Amino acid sequence: MQAFGGPVLLDDGDGQDLLSAASAADDIARVSAILSAMDGQGPGSLRLYRPQATAAFAPRDTALPAYAEAAAAMQHLGFTPAERRAGGQLAVYDRNALVIDLIAPHQEPRNSVTQRFAMFSAAIATALKGFRVDARVGQVPGEYCPGDYSVNAGGTLKLAGVAQRIGRRGYHMGAVISVHPSAPARHAVATAYAILGFPFAPESFGAVSTLAPDAAFADLRAALAGEISQLIGIAGTTPPAEWRSST
Asked: What is the pLDDT of residues 23-78, one digit of tens each?
């Protein structure tokens, strides 16, 4: 579709278990490297993977007086602090989550920001509905990294956070989906948000498997890739080798 540009290549480099072998910083730097190289033509990259334990601070987080304290606390709890370029607030996740990185070429990426947000979040919700989850788009009270395009279950549990970053000739749509419950991640969010002075209701931190116990990572990845492919053309499945060495 026009809002999404394209095409992209589906990254299959993480293997059947979808576990990223890269560090938190390198996975985030990979996005910046690909986006910076976008010339508006293509192809881009669609990657769905399970990340290392990460505390992804947003730009405005790093400007706060308590940032250093929060970053140190995350490191102590086993979540590597990393700085992402997209907006929002701190997101904390580990291998119980599934990350989506869609980095695509677009001649005028600033023209369809809201439309991309709405359609990307709707695609995630549609994929989750296939697992009998009452998935909806919208913010729930007390959620971490609050946003209008979060994906929730039944209007009470946040399942996915969505962010967007605009480049000169491309964009990045990112999402973190909580697949299995992670008590360490929830505790880390509560700890960091208390330090930073952000509101957070731990009971809003949901997970797909509590609602759909049979939802495996591979099945979720296939469903999500299928819905995203309705938004943007997928030209192949093998990314250029330099995308993994550029970080």
From this structure: 999 999 999 999 999 987 779 999 999 999 999 999 999 999 999 999 999 999 99
SS (H, E, C) the chain: CCCCCCCEEECCCCCCCCECCCCHHHHHHHHHHHHHHCCCCCCEEEEEEECCCEEEECHHHHCCCCHHHHHHHHHHCCCEEEECCCCCCCEEECCCEEEEEEEEECCCHHHHHHHHHHHHHHHHHHHHHCCCCCEEECCCCCCCCCCCCCEEECCCEEEEEEEEEECCCEEEEEEEEECCCCHHHHHHHHHHHHHHCCCCCHHHECCHHHCCCCCCHHHHHHHHHHHHHCCCCEEECCCCCHHHHCC
Over the stretch 155-167, which tens digit does the pLDDT of each residue have? 999 999 999 999 9
> What is the average pLDDT across 234-245?
63
Domains of the chain are 8-241 (3.30.930.10)
User: For position 1, what pLDDT does the model report?
Assistant: 61
pTM: 0.94
b/e code 113-128 from CB counts within 10 Å (16+ = b): eeebbbbbbbbbbbbb
Contact call for residues 135 and 129 (beta carbons, < 8 A): yes
Which of 123, 124, 75 lies closest to 98 in space, CA to CA?
124
